[in-house]
Amino acid sequence: MSQFEPGKLINLSRLVHRVVAPNAGMMTGPGTNTYLIGNEEIAVIDPGPADPIHIDAIISAAESLNGTIKWVLCTHTHPDHSPGATPLCERTKAKAYGQVAPAEGMSQDQSFKPDHNWQDLEVLETDSFKIKAVYTPGHASNHWCYLLQNEAMLFTGDHIMNGSTVVIAPPDGNMSDYLNSLEKLKSEAIEHIAPGHGDLINTPLEVIEGTIQHRLMREDKTVQKLAEIQPANLDQLVKEVYDEVPIFLHELAKYSLTAHLDKLASDGKAEKIDDTWQLTSLSSSN
Ligand SMILES: [Zn+2]
Questions:
Q1: Core-most of 38, 165, 220, 234, by most CB within 10 Å?
Q2: Is residue 174 part of a domain?
Q3: Around ion ligand 1, which residues have CB less than 5 A away?
Q4: Would 273 be classed as within a structural domain?
Q5: Does residue 98 lie within any of the structural domains?
Q6: 91, 148: one domain
Q7: Ligand 1 centre and the CA of 197: distance in Å?
C-alpha cells in the first residue's frame, strides 16, 4: 500500500508521476490520484480536493522534478477531483482546463472556473508531450478523459476506476451516455489506463469491454427481475437486481439501478408509473 501513501511522489513512467490525495474512503478507494505529466513544463490532471496538505504535496512534487506547473486539467467536477484547481492555479499561475459544473445534479464543485473549455478531441501540445481531450459523459455530464499520446496512456478520472465500481447517478449521470463513451474509447490507441482511483491498468481493451459487458449484464438482469416482480419500486428491485452485492451498498446501488431503468425507459423497454416500474410490451416481445 505504500504506493498509495498520500503525498508520496511515484514515478510511473518517463512522463507520468502520481501523488495520491489524503482522502481514502468507500467512494475514493486509496484516495484521488493526482497525476503530473511532463518534467519541465507540467500538466496536472485532477488536483483533487482543496486540501492545503495535498496542494503542498503537488507543488513539492513538481519542485522535485525541477518542473513548473503550467496547466491543471480536470476530468470532471465531483468534489474529490476539481476543487484543488483554484488554489493550485492561484499559487502556480497555471491555467485550468475542463468544463464547468452543471447547475444541478449530485454534489458538484461550483468553484471550478476553467480558463479553457475543451473541444472534443482537442490536443494540448507542448514541447515534450501531447494530451488529447476526449469527451466521455456518463459518470458525470461534464466528464473528460485525457490521452497522453506519447505513451498511449489514458487518464480516465471516474469513467474507469481500478478496484471500485463507478456509480452512475442520474440525472447528471446517464447510463446510455456512459456506454457510448466506453464504446468511443475503443477507437483510440490506448495501451495503459491511469484511473482516478487505484493503480494503472495494462489491459485497457479487456477492461473497457468487460465494463460494457458488466453493465449490459446488469441491464439484462433488471429486465429479467422486472418481469418476475413487476410492478416494483426501487427498494424492491435493488434487492433482486443487486442480490450478489452486500446490503450496505444497496443505497448506493439504487443510483446505478435508476440509471439502468432510465436507459430502459429511453429505449422504450420499461416505464415508470408513480413510484413503480414495469416493462413495456415492446420489451416482452424481444
Ligand atoms: Zn472520484
A1: 38
A2: yes
A3: 80, 158, 196
A4: yes
A5: yes
A6: yes
A7: 7
